[in-house]
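During the no-cost extension, the postdoctoral fellow (Dr. R.K.) reprocessed legacy sequence entries with the updated structure-token encoder. One reprocessed record is reproduced below for audit purposes.
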Amino acid sequence: MTEDNENADVWTDGQTKSRGQQTLPADWRDQPVDPDLEENLGYELIAWEKINVVDDPDQVIFLPDSEEQLRDDAFIVSGESAVCDLADKR
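Re-encoded structure tokens follow.
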């Protein structure tokens, strides 16, 4: 193992810890376990509509409800198998 690899972060139980470090840095420890997306993380929540593609049952399209975002070409095309409810992944 090289010196660079020895100092690399490793994934442990869904959290990152540096090798040899037993706890998370203070700024991470002070964050809420279940942060509010808008207040704590600064996300602006908007509604998107999920549309199933008729010709391909594993393909879905997500479109924002905002006409302004539609004019800005905001959309997502994804495989149905890649879509999940994050509340189920806790």
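Residues 1-7 have pLDDT under 50 and may be disordered. Residues 32 and 40 are 8 Å apart (CA to CA). The remaining legacy entries will be reprocessed before the final report is submitted.
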